[in-house]
Each structure stands twice: as C-alpha cells, then as structure tokens.
Structure of Replication restart protein PriA:
Amino acid sequence: MRVASVIVDVPAMQTDRTFDYLIPEKWKEIIQPGMRVAVPFGPRKVQGFVIKLKNEPEVERLKEIHSLLDLTPVLNEELLQIGYWLTEKTLCFMISALQAMLPAAMRAKYDKEIKLLPTSRLDELEPAVQALMDESTSIQWNEIEKRDLLHVFQKDIKKGFLEVVYHVKNKTNKKTMKQVEPAISSSEIDDVIKTLPVQASKQKEALEYFKTNHAPILIRDLLNILGSTESTIKSLVKKGLLLEKNIEVYRDPYKDKTFQRTVPLPLTNEQEKVISPILASIDDEVHNVYLMYGVTGSGKTEVYMQAIDEVLKRGKEAIVLVPEISLTPQMVNRFKGRFGSQVAVLHSGLGAGEKYDEWRKIHRKEVSVVVGARSAIFAPFENIGIIIIDEEHESSYKQEDNPRYHARDVAIFRGEIHDCPVVLGSATPTLESFARASKNVYELVTLKERVNNRPLPTVEIIDMREELRNGNRSMFSEALYAKLLDRLEKNEQSVLFLNRRGHSSFVMCRDCGYVMNCPHCDISLTYHKSSHQLKCHYCAYETQMPHVCPECNSEHIRFFGTGTQKVEEELAKMIPQARVIRMDVDTTSRKGAHEKLLREFGEGRADILLGTQMIAKGLDFPNVTLVGVLTADTMLHLPDFRSSEKTFQLLTQVSGRAGRHELLGEVVIQTYTPEHYSITLASHHDYDGFYQNEMMIRKLHAYPPFYYLALITVSHPELTRTIDVAEKITTYLRKSLSNKTIILGPVASPIPRINDRYRYQCMIKYKSEQNLNKLLKGILDRYQKEIAQHSLSLSIDLNPYIMM
Ligand code: ADP
Ligand code: ZN
Ligand code: ZN
C-alpha cells in the first residue's frame, strides 16, 4: 500500500475528514489502520490516526508521513467503526471520537521505549534487535528511529517478545510520599532524649521509636503509630535529628492489596431464573439486552459474576461498567476477589499513568475482565462475551462533553457486533429502560426479594415544616435526633445523607437580601469554611468572604443553607460525643482519601458517616442500622424533567444502605414536601407505583420515553448575538422539522451566563425525524467560522441529561 488516509488532530469542521499521505518506502510493511502517526499539516506537524490504506493516491504530490507513534494499532477495526458511529450519533468530530476511546496518557507528552517482555529471551530476537539491545532489556524509541529499525522491532513485537511502553512526562503522575529516618545513631538518640525538656514528650516518643526501629518510615505511618501530629516530626527535622525525604511510590493502586478469593455461591431460585436466559444467550452467541430489575441486596452482583464465569470458560471477555467505582472500592474487591489478576480496573480515581497501565493489560490481552466507569466501554477487547452495566440509571454513564455519548448505547452497539448479551442492572431502572422492557425491546428479568429474605428497612417521612411550627429550628427533626442518640447508645452506626452540596451554602445579607453571585456566571457563590472563601462551581472563581455587605454595608452578611460542613458543626454541638466522618468533594479530593474514610467507617472508628450523594452507592456495612436523609427535596426543584426520577432513585438507594445484614434497618427522610409522590412512593419501596405515576406525567408533558429530546445551547460573550443566533436556529428548525415535533425556545438557559458568556437554549422534542442529525450538522456548518474563532459556541446534545 502506498497511501494512508489519516484523521488529523485538528478538531474543526473543515478538518473533520481524512487526509491522504504517502507512506515512505521503509514503513510500507509496518503501517496499519488504527496506528497513530505524525504528519505535516500546513506549517506544523500534528498527530493523526491511520484509518485506511490504499494503493492509488487521489491527488497528486502527496506529502509523506513524518513519523510513527505506534508499532501496533492502538484502535482495532471495531473501535474505528465505533468512531464513525459516534460521529453520526453525537455529531462530534471523528478525532474527538477516536481520542475518547484511548487513555488520556496517550494524548499527553511521553517518552517511549521498547522493552523485552519477562517471558522472552534476548537470543530469540531478530539479530538486528539483539545487536542494538545488547545486554539491556529496554531501548529508547528514538534510538531505533534514528537507525531506521522500526520495521525490524515490529516483527518481534508481533511475535510477543517486545512491547512498547509509554512514560508520561507529566510529573504529577509520579506519586511521592514523605518519609523520615534518624539522622543520628541509636546511642546518640539516647543522649538527645536526656537533653530534651519535659514538655517535649511527643518528640521524645518519636525518638524512642527510632531508637528501636533505626530505619526509614513513611511520615503517615509514623504518625499513625505515635498518634502525634506532623509538627512534632517537623521540629525534629529542624533540629537535624531526623532526615526527611520524598520517595516515589509505585502506581498500581491494587498492587500490595491481597484479595480474599471467593467462590460462586449456590444461587437462590430467583437468581437461577434470572441467570438462565442470560446463560442461554452466552451459549447461543446471540445478542439480547436484559434489564435486570432487582431490589438492593437481591444478589445482582453475584449473578453478574457467575455469568462472567461462563464467558471466561469460553475464552471470551467481559466488560462491567459501574458508576465511578473509585467511589465503591467494595465493588472492586468483589470482582478482584472472584477473578483475581484476570481483572483490570479503569476509573477516574486513577492517575493518568495508572489508567494507562490498566489499559495496556487489556490491549495486550493479559486480562479478560474489565471493571470500570463510563469510558471502560471502549476497552480494546476483541472477543466480548458479555457487557454488564450496573446501576444502569446512573446519569454518569452519559458523557457531558464531546463526544456526548451514553455508555448504554455503545454497549448495545458492541453487543450487536459481538453477538453477546448486554445486561442492564438496577433497583430503580430509568423510565426509558423500563418502558423498553415493557415493550419487549429489552427482556425483563426480576429479583423481587433480598437474598436470605432480609426485609427492606422501614421508612419514616418527617415533615420539616411541622418541626419548624413546633419551634425546632435545627436541621435535625426530633425523631432523627432521638434515633441518632439511640444508635450511639447501642453502638450501631448511622449514615446521614445530604442532597448535593452546591448552592446549599450561599451567602446572603440579612438586612437587604443581597446574595453573593459569581461576577462571571449568574449563579450564587458557595461558602467554603476551611479556607473562608467563596467559590464558583462553574468557573472556579474564588474570593474572600466579605466582612460587610457589598450592597448596603451591613455587617449581617451570613452564609445560609446546609452544606456538609455546617451539618458537621451542628452535629458536634448537638451530639458532641459522636465520632463523625464527613465525605464530600472537599474531604475526598485527595487520591485514596475516599477509600480511607470508608475503611475507617467500616472498621467502626466512627459512629456517623455524613456525606453527599457519593455515599449513596454500593456501601455495605453490617453495623449500619439508621439512614437519615436531611433534606429529600433539594433536587426536586431543579429545572430538570428527571428531578422526580432522580429523587426517587436516590432515596431508594440510600434506604438500601440500612439493615443489609442481621440487624434491622430504619430510614428517616426529612422533607419540606412530604406529599410529593417521589418521596411517598420511595418510602414504600414502590418502584412500580412510581413508574406508573411518572409515565403519566412524562406523557402529559411530552418527555422521554414518549419523546426524544435534543438540546441546543448557544453561547456568546454578547447577549444580543446570543439571542440572535438562538432565534435564527429556532426559526430554521420550526421551518424544517415536521409539525408533530415540538420546538421550545429560544429561552435563556437556567444558568443564563457562565464564564462571561451568555447562554440561550432551544429544546427539540420529537418522535421521529429522519433528517434531524443532518439538519443539525448543517447548522454547525453554517456557523463554523464563528465557532472556529471561539466567539460563538454551539452545543448540541442529543438525549441530554443536564438541562442547565
Ligand atoms: P445487589 O447487587 O443486588 O445489591 P449483592 O449481589 O450485593 O446484591 O448481594 C447482596 C448480599 O447477598 C451480598 O452480601 C452477597 O454476597 C449475598 N449473596 C448474593 N447471592 C447470594 C447467594 N446466592 N447465596 C448467599 N448469599 C448471596
Ligand atoms: Zn446588604
Ligand atoms: Zn463563575
């Protein structure tokens, strides 16, 4: 082949097509579709993906490919095909689709080297390779490139003797920790201890420790042992008695953990009924979508694992999607426990380097199960036997920037290609999925009972307006307060759940009602106690908390609402003896913090776990017998047609955290709208009732699953231009789409300004529009110049999950 068709890394409308390049003679045998190359593009060199090879150049005088970035394809034929499908379904550029399927590390700057695999020997290699590698087991990529030997190395890579390894240059990917060691000998330590003043008891303890353990230790571990603070260590370092060093720690997060091996459990009758059609699909190699509707604790995960077992026995692979599993280490443990080193884990909690390492295991076929968040759906497996999406109702399966894909759609597309079953599991399926199951588009399989028949917890709804009338102004109702005390006495644990942080702690002047807004976005700032700062959650703007009201100079400017920090403070006042662990974006932003807090709670080192929605999922602690929801309705008032559904799902999920084992569970839901059906029905664990009720409302208001949605958001620094474009688009759509289609807008978006850009939107509700995607692409085309200059931005979201 003489010519390669390449998609270049220039995300713009004009460049969203392949460009042809001549393949230099020396790489004729090497280049394959799915490899990345560097090519000259205008005055610069850019990265690109080889999509196709052909013999005849379509234009004369083609430029040559400049260099190779891979020696084996990083995207296989199927993934290239998915790339094209994504561009059609989500209207993204091909380059965005291709890059979304690869780990971020491969987009970053890196050094590359070729390494001898531990299973191979030097003398097996091609003579030229042997000569170059000599005694070493690795060689820098550019050394090979300089000598024009890439094609020879490729032979050994294909044979499985060598592999290409990327070292991400970005320093932040290296994880370092501080360690200390004694700077003096053991006998000198003795002398020093004698000279220290009496009140330096902590320092003495630390020195005593080193007298018997004369070796380096991580500061973190030392503090744990001594129960002292970092300042103790710091002063010893200052005095020159201890030596502090940064050391690098290895980046496999699961490396030093041992996993308790588990074996398949004998299935219950219900589980047997649910798994048998799935096994039949695996056996017959037919694609089918199963909706596994099973209450929390009904043993869905056990069914997933046994289905995967069957798939592995046939030498095939399995993809399991779980929502942001960094948040549920318990889930990782279950899969690693059952399938051991056959499992790769991909989730957002991993650093870029770690993710890339896991991806490489999949690419090299060293694993056959991947457990991961959304993007794991693109795992480069080639022989998939099952795809499972746990908690299928989770909105994090939808990506919110380009390509705006939903993992469920990709899963079904791949399931068709591989002739394998796709299993969607949930205790509260989305209305869309349940409606499809009722119409037999999906096959419904149901688990009605909890394993070993644990009853679902009793749920009590508390009307907070009533509490207020009775003079209780705190954020805890009498009932919840009493139950918290009761659990404390019995040595049982409680979980307190606060619906999202966000604008719950906004700052307002009590005299004039002035609310502190972000100067760049029309949204209130959030108060952060630890730094005494106000932050914007949309543009990262920060400012100090003012002492007086900027509007009227009053000193009565306060923060309002119930952020997790505020709840924590009130807990400390009301139940000072309770040990509380707080989990929110602030306390878990550091890597590993999440897991650590959960572990502490699991080990019984706290009485109350307080947190945002991140504690709603997947937690399973036997000693938790009380779940309190502080304000169930905060989400109900969001401008989002899914707000009732989300409230119902969340309440059902948190309720499922209580009484999962021997002890009975109890749930208290506090709300200002106790009569709302999503709250009452959740309290009765009545999904079917909720489904019926909500379907009626969706039908009435023409929302999914009765209609499809497309949301177009126009944004521009000038208000007049924003409105102008939004109006033109809306008018054009009204003219071009069928009269059965409903077009709303243009109206200002619920957040009318972000980052100094005004925002207007237009919503399309339709049942069938053959040409919609073509039409929308045409609109993007029409404005491409303004978009390319970054003055205008047009976002088109087919099947939107965020309406703001
Ligand atoms: P779900 O995923 O539906 O919430 P799980 O799979 O987590 O449910 O199961 C809940 C609990 O029941 C877990 O502790 C699990 O180990 C246990 N379990 C599941 N299936 C069985 C079974 N067939 N026999 C005994 N215990 C089981
Ligand atoms: Zn004021
Ligand atoms: Zn802002």
Summary: The pocket of adenosine-5'-diphosphate (ligand 1) is lined by residues 265-268, 271, 294, 296-302, 451 (CB under 6 Å). The mean pLDDT is 86. The first strand starts at residue 3 and ends at 8. The domain at 3-102 is CATH 3.40.1440.60 (GIY-YIG endonuclease).
